Each structure stands twice: as structure tokens, then as C-alpha cells.
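Posting here for the record, re: calcium ion.
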Amino acid sequence: MESKSKNIVIAHRGASGYLPEHTLASKAMAYAVGPDFLEQDLVLSKDNVPVVIHDIHLETVTNVAERFPDRQREDGRFYVIDFAFAELKQLQVTERFNSKTGEQVYKDRFPKGKSTFQLHSLQEEIEMIQGLNKSTGNDIGIYPEIKEPGFHHKEGKDISKIVLEVLSAYGYINKSDNCVLQCFDAKELKRIRKELNSALFLVQLTESNGAGSELKNYAEYADGVGPWYKQITPEYVRNAHDLGLKVHAFTFRADDLGEFESFDTLLDYGFNTMNFDGIFTDFPDKAIQFLEK
Ligand code: CA
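Prediction output follows.
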């Protein structure tokens, strides 16, 4: 990670613009277009397996409501943490949809309910990426995110400790090991550095829109900051850089352009106007093509 100082492309939930997010198929496609990192969002199963999934709930990307109809909590939601990994493996994963209306969120993406996809563990995904690194001779990194550590603690689980053990077992220990660990929870990320003594490259995700008064605090334990590109200013990026923090902004989507007229215009804004060091994107192929121009 340290050697890559500019224009990092992170495949956000894989090539999620083309295949259901966080499936191994989506990761394989993303790998093939050659980003710097593939992203893994992580939630623990009942039996403490780190599962690659964006939400602590299952009902917006799987058929859990049909497969296990009596396993919802009082709030009507199905929690990853209530299922053993072997049960999670029985679910079909699909393109993200609204669980109330059944409508898929991004209409022009992979059709909901088609083909067959499964959930998988962090270990399974690392083995695929490391296997591809061996068979292709490339060296693509991983970019895991600890999801909702406060929820996990309440459920009696130390997700950070478990994830760090898996990462260490696969050789991700230091900043040179091509792994970036990210989290929105500042208290937890600080704990990962100071109490769990991780030497990994750490990125503090944030929804802050300030000029960056919190950046000084982040710089005490993190190596980078991950803001929402719509919420911050070039000044924020300069302040982060002055503190030695890399800036990896989320999320660049070719089918969610906002006021930008094309994806290239949006990418130009991110890399050239804002001077981000890296971006999370659902369309890693398009970001790489833009950077090659
Ligand atoms: Ca994420």
C-alpha cells in the first residue's frame, strides 16, 4: 500500500455495477479488470465466521424471507448474526432490492433473481484473490471493512479481533502487505491500532462534512480517511494531506451521476479537482479506462 501513492481504484463490493454485490462472481470480474484493491464488507455469522456482506441484515440481497420465514427478529428483519455459516450458505444471493416493494435498487443492473449466487466467507474470498494473484502473476490487494462493531459488541462478539486473526493467518499483517482495513466507527478503528496493536494500513471512513477538525484525531491512529465525495471540499483533502492522511472517497457510480454529465466528468472531478488519492467505484473498469487515457 505504501508504494501506491496516487490514483488508487478500489472495486466497491466487487464489480457491483455488473453482477450482484459481494458475490465471488462480482469479485472475479472486478479482479480481471485490474483494480488496486477488491473491497470486502464484513459481518459475523452466529458461529463467528466473517461473512462478506454489506448489511447486518439479509433480506435486501438474499431469499432469506422465503428460505427461513420464521427466523426474523421482532423488528421484522433477518440478522446475519442469527444464522450459522452453513445456513447462510443455503441462501440465494441476488441483485439488491427493496424488501418491501421487491423492486431492485439499480434498475439497469444485473436482473434480480436470475442465475445463482451464494454468500461466502472472508477466507474464501482471500483464497480466491491470492489464488488469482498466483495464477495471473498480478498483485491485487484486499480492502476489508469492519461493519457495525458496536452492534457486534452488543451481541457479545469481537469482530475486529476475529477479522485481524484471519488477516494475519493469510499474511496481512503490516502496511506493506497489500491490505487496507477500514471502519466507520472511530472508537473501534482507534482500538484496532492502540489496543489490538494492528500494524495494517488503516482508513477511517467518515460522513463528516466539516473542514476537517476531526482529521487531527484520525491522524493519531489512521493512515487514511474515507469520506463521501459529495460532502467534502478540496480544502478538506488538503488538510488531510497536510496531516499525512491519504484520501479514498466513496462511491463513484456510472448509473448515479447526480449533477455530473458523464462518468468521466465525475472521475475527472474526483481525481483532478478534488485530488483524491483513491476512489471506491462500482465500475472499476471505467475508472481504470479513465486513468489510462
Ligand atoms: Ca464498504
